Amino acid sequence: MAGRTVMTLTREAPVATVREAPPRRRRHDGLTTALMAGPATVLYVVMLVVPVGLAFYLSLTDWDGFSADPAFVGAANYARLLDDPELRRAALVTLLVAAAGTAGLNLLGLGFALLVDGVSRANTFFRIVLFYPHVLSALVVGFLWSAILGTNGAVNNLVTTWGGEVLPFLSDPAWATVTMIAVLVWAGFGVNVVLYLAGLQAVPHSLIEAARIDGATRWQVFRNVTLPALGPSVTINIVLSLVTLLKTYDLVVSLTAGGPAGQTQTVAYLILWNSFHDARLGFGSAQSVILMLVTAALAFVVTRLRRRGEMAVHQ
Amino acid sequence: MRKTFLSATAAFMLVPLYVLTVNAFKGQQEILRDPFGLGGLTLEPLGRALTNPQFDVVKGYAVTLLFVVAVNVLSVLLAAPAAYTIARSPKRRFRVLMLFFLAGTFIPGQVLVIPVVYVLKTLGLMGTIRGFVLFETTLTLPFSIFLYAGYIATIPAVLDQAAAVDGAGRLRTFWQIVFPLMRPAVATMVILNTFSVWNDFVNPQIILGPGSGLYTVTTGVYAAVSQYSTDYTVVFPTLLLAIAPLLVFFVFMQRHIISGLTAGATKG
What we know:
The structure holds two protein chains of two kinds.
Chain A: H1 2-19, H2 22-58, H3 76-82, H4 85-115, H5 121-131, H6 138-149, H7 154-161, H8 173-200, H9 205-213, H10 218-229, H11 231-246, H12 250-255, H13 267-277, H14 281-314
Helix pairs in contact in A: 1-2, 3-14, 4-8, 4-11, 5-8, 8-11, 9-10, 11-14, 13-14
Chain B: H1 2-23, H2 28-33, H3 44-50, H4 57-88, H5 92-103, H6 109-122, H7 129-152, H8 158-165, H9 170-178, H10 183-199, H11 202-208, H12 217-225, H13 232-252, H14 254-265
Helix pairs in contact in B: 3-13, 4-5, 4-7, 4-10, 5-7, 6-11, 7-10, 7-11, 8-9, 10-14, 12-13
């Protein structure tokens, strides 16, 4: 039916817009607009807006993923969240990953952006090499690093051949968490390099030269000219890293599978595990609502703090 | 000193890729004996990965490519005209519509997948290719519309008026005059969508489900590797087959891909 409407409209539209009197033309215009913006809007509402609302609703039910009308349980899922030790640990891991990962991504991102700034063949090559892991899926990156850092992995093979002890990169909880953060940074900081490079192009060259002529050291130039001018870039990079890291999932699946003993489960991992392994989608919805709210709140707070910082610099 | 440091870093970035490539051509014994060496290379593991009953790689490529093409075509067909309407209308309600779409860029996928299962079940689309393609396309809409509307605003409206004077309707004006000029923006989105569909794990895994027998390259890697993560003659060749097309594509189109994916990263 939709197909037929398209056909008749495309055939008639040109004729109508040229010949007909204004009232008819306006109605036709409205139809064309509906035809152009309508399908996208309908799909967006059905598959994105409705689900966001549903997430709130389902979090108040005991939906198991199968039943047609789940029972309403009120705030029970949220109450259970508060004293769930598994979730508390996952929240801690997630916050640690997000904080340490954001620091790593941005320190390396900004540092390497300064190193590969400027047009040259070598710089282009280095940018590509720093960026390429971002092309791979996090799932592949995790499997690859687990093959390299696992107990029988490439690195431990080398270590034992040289007579050393096996290093528990993925088999000790603390090591596994650090390994996970390191792999996330390895795979992601290339994007931050590119974003900071874009920011660096906006730093006025004349200012840097003026500071140099006045006898400022490289560090002083960076600290007092480049970094303040990069302010908005830093904010964007920090918020992006935080938001991305707070939903870390694929890498957990492939690198550690949440182990050892569930010690590297992130909140996103737990959400999907509870929902689709334990068939507790109502409970999972409650967790994802909280995750969404915490993410939004953190992004907001960081943006506000940074803005205040930027204002202070400009005064 | 800068060059030395950068070269050392580049080596560190590339070592995993080297280990992956070299060991995809070795037996288990050889991998365990000398994971970094070049001894005992054979094509046998790669051949076995190609005929793995757990995951048919060639079919995985075909399925993934089908999804990539379907999502890209549908996304352009829906987002481009919507963005045109928004960008060319001075009316307030279209600015509101833009904000409405823009809000979608802030919703993380994990929050959506559970309620989307509910919606798809209600519509009878759960576990179907149609359902998956529709949802994956929806995820591309907010940022596409944002990017396209911004780009269309840079195309002079005089062109539209000229076309209208010549008797072209709005649909024709858009598709024949404006759309061809949007090529750079469309190329950016196609690159971005191609990578996000190819690399997506959660959505195909949950919406299509293992029961459907439909594996994308990424869910197929999971099916093939997760159970056998210590059998390196499965892990390395499978991973190599999964990333080789992307890496080749990346090497040839690196400048466009880097700018496209970076634009995508900023969508939050």
